[in-house]
Design a protein that fits this description.
Layout lengths: L1 H17 L13 H29 L2 H10 L14 H10 L19 H8 L13 H15 L9 H9 L8 H20 L27 H21 L12 H9 L21 H10 L1 E3 L7 E2 L7 E7 L10 E7 L2
Antiparallel strand pairs: 1-2, 3-4
Helix pairs in contact: 3-8, 4-9, 4-10, 5-9, 7-8
Length: about 350
């Protein structure tokens, strides 16, 4: 009877980790699951190419540019080795992420609090005190005019991702001028936000929603980019869960999907294979083969539609965990005061 009880409890645990978000219906019906699956595969190929571009770019930029990236507080991204993304795993994770709090498995004993500090540690980006606010209606024109002046364009529409990438790929055999440094810093933020931190479409749409902070590019490290990325992924989770709930095609998934994936995998106990806490951002600890192996070990139902079910591995043991509401930068997420794990 004791063994039966253990199996019953484990079954409840797996049911929770496998089940979709509250109210979501992933059964599809009338062939809709196959449509969702095809959309996931197509989107996966597009995002893999974007990450490969990033990894190649980061490895090729010169020492002067790398120093500018460090000054901005984004040097954690320079250690990124990931070029692939398991889109189905990402979709499953987003279905477990509470759009209100940003926490995984919210309301259960397995709940994991995702904070701005976690985002900063995982991605190696600033978590400053200045909030990134969108330009209000009467500021949009001025912000666009500033960007046109920086990039020497007649109109904002002339600022494309190809233009930005050419700036980042430019080689210098001399010391960069102050203006060239400002141009590079501005271009770098636009590129990583559009391609990785907060993508909004496969067409590399350059959004103005964060560019008010770029007018103050010399203080870019003082802004809370971690909070910005976290809000974007929460919005992506809400949108995906709504699509699945209403049996719509998933299509393109916004946001930095690798963020909740790394956050979840970082909390799993892989025994001696668990990555160590090195003095680099967490994203630099992982490579494609490691991520693929960890995801494969966590699969419960591989052929489940519209995406597999995960949750096989155990979470690391938590000795001390304390959550306080509020955040010194004005974020609304729960913040961990102390958290330690067995490894």
């Amino acid at each position: 009877s004791h063994l039966l009880l253990i199996h019953f409890v484990n079954g409840l645990h797996l049911q929770h980790l496998c089940s979709p978000a509250a109210g979501a219906n992933v059964s599809g019906g009338s062939g809709s699951s196959s449509v969702l699956t095809r959309a996931l595969h197509a989107a996966r190929a597009r995002k893999m190419y974007q990450r490969k571009q990033l990894a190649d770019l980061f490895s090729d930029i010169g020492d002067q540019q790398k120093e500018l990236v460090r000054q901005m507080g984004f040097d954690g991204l320079l250690s990124m080795r990931l070029t692939k993304l398991n889109k189905q795993f990402g979709a499953w994770i987003l279905c477990k992420l509470d759009p209100s709090s940003g926490n995984l498995f919210a309301g259960s004993k397995h709940e994991i609090c995702l904070t701005c500090e976690d985002v900063s540690l995982l991605l190696g980006i600033p978590c400053g005190r200045k909030q990134i606010l969108p330009a209000i209606k009467n500021e949009v024109k001025d912000v666009k005019a500033y960007m046109c002046e920086i990039f020497e364009k007649d109109s904002f529409d002339g600022i494309t991702i190809a233009t930005i990438q050419r700036i980042l790929e430019k080689k210098f055999t001399r010391t960069m001028t102050v203006h060239e440094q400002i141009v590079f810093k501005t271009a770098f933020i636009i590129f990583v936000v559009t391609k990785f931190l907060a993508p909004q479409s496969v067409n590399n749409h350059i959004s103005i929603r964060y560019m008010k902070a770029l007018v103050d590019v010399e203080n870019i490290h003082k802004y809370n980019w971690a909070e910005f990325v976290l809000h974007e992924i929460k919005d992506a989770a809400a949108a995906l869960q709504d699509k699945i709930r209403h049996r719509k095609s998933i299509g393109y998934i916004n946001g930095c999907i690798i963020l909740p994936e790394l956050f979840y995998l970082h909390h799993l106990d892989f025994g001696t294979d668990t990555p160590g806490h090195e003095n680099i951002s967490r994203i630099g600890v992982y490579n494609d083969s490691m991520i693929a192996e960890f995801i494969d070990r966590d699969v419960i139902l591989k052929n489940r539609k519209p995406f597999p079910a995960y949750g096989k591995m155990k979470l690391r043991n938590r000795h001390v965990e304390k959550c306080n509401l509020g955040h010194p930068t004005g974020a609304t997420e729960a913040a961990h005061v102390n958290r330690s794990f067995d490894t």
